[in-house]
Design goal:
The complex is a heterodimer.
Chain A (H helix, E strand, L loop, with lengths): L2 E3 L4 E9 L6 H11 L9 E4 L5 E14 L2 E9 L7 H7 L5 E7 L5 H17 L9 E6 L9 H8 L6 E3 L8 H18 L2
Parallel strand pairs in A: 2-5, 2-6, 6-7, 7-8
Antiparallel strand pairs in A: 1-2, 3-4, 4-5
Chain B lengths: L2 H17 L4 E6 L4 E6 L6 H21 L7 E5 L4 E7 L3 E7 L5 H31 L13 H7 L2
The chains are: A alpha/beta, B alpha+beta.
């Protein structure tokens, strides 16, 4: 849940990047970190294994500026994508305001994508959220690779709700900020609705 | 979080800070958002520390549930110079005290216990107040009701 501090006039929102292992969630955060002004970002914290696989989470705080006199901060988190880290994924979804699903477009990863969306739905439910209602954006990543699934087909399997999606090449930054802006907007609109 | 409670919380943390001889005292919500901090915070990245603290509590809470405990309410990490004492207050917020050899674990534990009681009371009152305001929507209008598409677009330049 977004945390609004009326005293220091701040809004803090939590966005979680979800998706199968090696899909590019951490890469999204690394690109955002690289391209953001030093004054509007905090440290990028990565709790990763020696082989740079996310172990617990990555964390990046971003200041987006003021909205009606309130400082708007987004806390971006990634989850560990590998199947056996499910307990950690559940913890990170606590208090989430919006989810970005980073799908791996390669043909051989479609099954992992589908499994991960189902896992997201279940884990959100456990925290009392509904994937069909929560602010949600999808990024079809790795569009530069040769053996990829057409976007139409990906939408059919992964996006029954028909939320906004972007094609991405996270290593080059393609689609990264479009995805972030879209989810941030949805979260702020949700905030507006809730009050 | 309202101004009145915020001041009460701040005062209580200031008291804990001086009575326990701590370097830094801060309060984090369970989702990793920093609520407020007191002490020598200049050289400390409190935002990251808040997020990691919440992650730490969440992970320990997961372990507790696997063992049939509701939560482990106190964590203590000992370093060469600095130590960190983390405790869960009223199941909802996390109180973090960083201290060095000018203080001791015993003193910190004692003072934290007292502060925990006061903070629990403040947060209980706050929960009641929030409930009441939600039930009576004719109160002061929220600034967020007025947010427009343009406001949000402006954030992204």
């Amino acid at each position: 849940m977004s945390f609004i501090n009326y005293s220091s006039r701040e809004i803090n929102c939590k966005i979680v990047y979800y998706g199968p292992g090696l899909g590019g969630k951490t890469t999204n955060l690394q690109y955002i970190y690289k391209k953001t002004n030093p004054e509007s970002k905090g440290k990028l914290i990565s709790l990763a294994t020696e082989t740079e696989r996310t172990l617990f989470f990555d964390f990046l705080p971003l200041n987006l500026g003021d909205i009606r006199g309130f400082k708007t901060r987004f806390h971006l988190y990634t989850v560990p994508g590998q199947v056996f880290y499910d307990a950690s994924r559940k913890l990170i979804l606590k208090g989430v305001d919006g989810v970005v699903f980073v799908a791996d477009s390669q043909v051989e990863r479609m099954e992992a994508n589908i499994e991960s969306v189902e896992n997201l739905r279940i884990n959100l439910n456990e925290q009392g959220y509904n994937l069909d209602k929560i602010p949600y954006t999808i990024q079809y990543n790795k569009r530069d690779l040769p053996n990829i699934v057409p976007v139409d087909e990906m939408n059919r399997s992964l996006n029954p709700r028909g939320v906004t999606w972007y094609e991405g090449v996270a290593v080059e930054g393609i689609g990264v900020f479009d995805t972030l802006k879209n989810i941030a907007k949805q979260v702020l609109f949700e905030l507006k609705k809730g009050y | 979080m309202y101004d009145e409670e915020f001041k009460q919380i701040d005062a209580e943390l200031n008291r804990l800070h001086s009575q326990s001889n701590a370097k830094v005292v801060f309060l984090v919500d369970k989702n990793g958002q920093l609520i407020t901090s007191v002490g020598e915070t200049r050289d400390i990245d409190t935002t990251s520390l808040a997020s990691l603290t919440a992650g730490n509590i969440a992970a320990t809470g997961g372990m507790a549930r696997l063992l049939g405990e509701r939560e482990f309410s106190i964590l203590f990490h000992e370093g060469e110079k600095d130590n960190i004492h983390i405790s869960v207050i009223g199941h909802r917020v996390i109180l973090v005290v960083i201290f060095d050899q000018r203080s001791s674990l015993g003193l910190v534990r004692l003072r934290v216990k007292k502060t925990a009681e006061t903070l629990t009371k403040i947060f209980e009152d706050l929960a009641v107040k929030t409930q009441k305001e939600k039930a009576a929507p004719e109160g002061a209008p929220s600034p967020f009701a007025e947010i427009s598409d343009e406001d949000i677009d402006k954030l992204f330049g």
